[in-house]
Amino acid sequence: MLPVSTNSGAKRHGQRRYSTLWLYFRRLFKPTQMDFQFSHSWGRSLIFVFKSVCFDYLAVGCIVATLGWFASNRFLRKKAQHQHAVEQNVEWMYAFDIHCNAYFPLFLLLDVLQLALSPLLLTSSILASALSAALYALGLSYYFYITFLGYSALPFLERTEVFLYPIGGILLALPFAVLTGFNPTKLMLKIYFNRQ
Question: What is the DSSP letter of 112?
Fold first, then answer.
C-alpha cells in the first residue's frame, strides 16, 4: 500500500519531508504486520512451485519417461528386416524429451489456466466439478497425444497407438466424475496445501 501524502507543502517543526517514492521504498524494506503475512504467502507459493517442479515435472517425468523407454524398446520395436540392419533403440533422454514436450501444454492448462479459473472451480456446484474434470481430462489427453506423436515419429517403432489408450480411459471416467461431483481441483488443492 502506498503511503498517504500530506496536504501541506511546508515543513513542520523540524520534520523532514519525504517524497512519495522515498516512503514507498522505505515501507518496502521495513517489515510490518502486512509484510509478514505477504512473505508467508509468498513462501508458501515458492514451496508449491518447488513441489510442482520437483515432483510433477522431474519425478513423475522420470517415471513416465522410463516406462515409455522400456515399453518402446521392449515391445514396440520393429523386428530386423534383414541380417545387415542396424539395431535401433529409443534412448532414455529422447523419452524424457517427449515428456518435456508433452508436459508444457499440461502445465499451461492445469497450473496457469486452473489458477485463473480457480474462483469458479472452487465453488460447490456441478458446473465447477464438470469444468474442473473437463480441464483435467483435456490436459491429460493432450499429454498422452503429444507422447504418442513423439514415439510415432520414430520409424523403427510400430503400434505406437498404445500411447493413445489412456485417453479412452480418461473419456470413460469423465462422465462418472461429473455425475458424482468429483472436483479434481479441490483434490489437488488438498494434496498440495493440505486444505479442503
Answer: I
